[in-house]
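2.7 Reproducibility. Because tokenized structures are sensitive to small changes in the input, we list the exact sequence used for Regulator of SigK, including any N-terminal residues retained from the expression construct. No trimming or masking was applied before prediction.
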Amino acid sequence: MNDVRRNDGDDGLSGAYSLDALSAEEKERFELALASSDELRAEAAGFADTAALLGGLDAVTPPPSLKADIFAKIQGLPQLAPQGDDASNVSSESAPVVEPVAEPAPRAPGRAESEAKRRWFRSPGAVLGLAAASVAAIAGSIVGVNWPGPTGWGAQHELTSIQAAADATTFTSEVAGGGEVTVLWSAELGRAAVMVEGMPQPADGQTYELWFIDDSGAVPAGTFEPGDDGSTWRVLEGENSGSPAIGVTVEPEGGSPAPTTDPIVVVQT
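Resulting structure tokens (single pass, no recycling of outputs):
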């Protein structure tokens, strides 16, 4: 029996085939090879069994500290200088002239070397496919669909930091008109966030506004509108320097410098 895989270069596609990650052309070519090779069928079956096993594993929720650590490491990375025309316009007088050194012509790789390189990059098809899926999931979890904005990268970082704080505490209250608000705050960080569920959309031209409330009055802390499912979250703007309560009012779109309506919920912290 001829081993079509060895002749047509289909070695290494078994993993991608088991994950349905081949193009139509690759899939057709691979299935032709599959019909002609016992070894290839056994390999593909092994990858399929592994993919099924991995797909049946229970998801593990990482601790909040993991996300905070990732953000901290990313923020600590140095910024590279922009590479543009300025970088290339360096005076030739500031550096000695170096005569170019002739380099030997690159050696053409032999058949064995080419085959080894091809296998190195293509053999772990299943591993690469699963890794790509993991990266996509992590990227979606960490970065979110909005890079800037109230639920973007910076806000997610702040929320994660509050969640990971040693003194993080939550308080939940029901909202007049439906839904509930949960306040997450850390006295150590002086930061707070809210998570809302089941809240109706505000009327046209209106929005919900958050407030830090103490004996001296109410300080605006940002606005929000729940999603179609009535839920969303916000990190409150400013620091919660010992405010005993956080409130929500209905205000004109864009928010108000001071409350214009009675609060629909006040969460005592």
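The chain is about 35% helix and 20% strand.
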